[in-house]
């Protein structure tokens, strides 16, 4: 087992007033040569956007872009004609491919919006730009992971052009789950959204993460009531 620990207080931080962003990997003005990627994952930004503010129209190329709202309402518009609002309980994906322009705004004038934006490097290029947005399975039980993303159009969740799987779950204190890796060449990134959990010999608190590879499965135990995101990606791509 190989591990890389990402404590919340070691992330890059950009405070633009209207935007508070924490960067797990090098992004914009934050550059850390030891934190460029975890396998095929290039970006994991933890963003809080002030009421009524947001990102103007901008362009992406050849990247799988996944947005997961944590609270509030995020309004999306793009050059393919999509105009939607994503909320907590949704997951959104864009295959930027040959090029897509989009904007993201806090729809509300009286409260912040919080969301994760994750970039995964694709295994096919060029591809036609694509957009999808779904509700995460609302009927899954506590103390288990629900799949929210995969490489397969027919599977649960959204899909992307990469051999990657995302799972999310809520766990009660001292609950243990064993998560099996889909492909032996993949690594697993464990990100604690809320609460705390033990994984790979480390205690992870809120917004801490650990990347683990050279494993077939990983045991995770909630130290407190917790919400956890798992991101499985190829380590070589």
Fold blueprint:
Elements: E1 2-6, E2 12-15, E3 19-23, E4 41-49, E5 54-60, E6 64-71, E7 73-78, E8 83-87, E9 90-95, E10 100-106, E11 113-120, E12 130-135, E13 146-150, E14 158-159, E15 165-171, E16 176-180, E17 186-194, E18 197-199, E19 202-204, E20 209-213, E21 217-222, E22 226-234
Parallel strand pairs: 13-14
Antiparallel strand pairs: 1-20, 2-3, 3-4, 4-11, 5-10, 6-9, 6-11, 7-8, 7-10, 9-12, 13-15, 15-22, 16-21, 17-20, 17-22, 18-19, 18-21
The fraction of residues assigned to DSSP E strands is over 45%
| Helix-and-strand structural type | mainly beta
Specify Rg, calculated over alpha carbons.
Answer: 17 Å
General form: globular
Question: What do these coordinates show?
Answer:
The chain is mainly beta and 237 residues long. Helices cover 0% and strands 55% of the residues. It has strands at residues 2-6, 12-15, 19-23, 41-49, 54-60, 64-71, 73-78, 83-87, 90-95, 100-106, 113-120, 130-135, 146-150, 158-159, 165-171, 176-180, 186-194, 197-199, 202-204, 209-213, 217-222, 226-234. The strands form four sheets. It has a seven-stranded mixed β-sheet with strand order 1-20-17-22-15-13-14, with no helix packed on it. The radius of gyration is 17 Å and the shape is globular.
